[in-house]
Amino acid sequence: MGAARLADVMVAFVRVAKTTDVPPGCGRVVVVHGYPVALFNVDGRFYALSNVCLHRGGPVGEGELDGSVVTCPVHGWEYDVRTGANTINPAARLRTFEVRIEGDDVLVGS
Ligand code: FES
Fold it and tell me: Is the CB of 70 under 6 A from ligand 1?
């Protein structure tokens, strides 16, 4: 088994949406192994990150997306969805997850 195949085994990918379910500029909350994950489409590229805001746990995936920045709908903390980094304090970072596109399916790795 090569290194790439071993990595595939170690990261379990889950189908979470169709690509058409999340148009460019939009996001939604999906479930990966029972946990809510925020999924966003930035100009056709998909990004997945923790749905739990580092401030007080707001649902990041329900926030407005402007470019690559999402605003938490509860008190307005902002994160770059490409990295999970808070825009004011980049040391505060939401966990990110690998995303894979297979056909028109979006898969998220955990
Ligand atoms: S819970 Fe997200 S900004 Fe307060």
Answer: no
Q: Is 60 in the pocket of ligand 1 (CB under 6 A)?
A: no
Q: Report the length, in residues, of the chain.
A: 110
pTM: 0.90
Phi, psi of 84 (to 5 degrees): 85, 0
Residue 23 has pLDDT above 60, yes or no: yes
81 falls within a domain? yes
Shortest-distance atom of ligand 1 to CA 56? 1
| Overall domain count for the chain | 1
Kindly report, residue by residue over 62-80, the tens digit of the pLDDT: 999 999 999 999 999 999 9
Q: What is the DSSP letter of 7?
A: H
* 101 and 3 Cβ atoms separated by less than 8 Å: no
Which range of residues forms the domain containing residue 31? 20-109
Q: Answer yes or no: is the C-beta of 63 below 6 A from any ligand 1 atom.
A: no
Ligand 1, atom 3, lies closest to the CA of 75
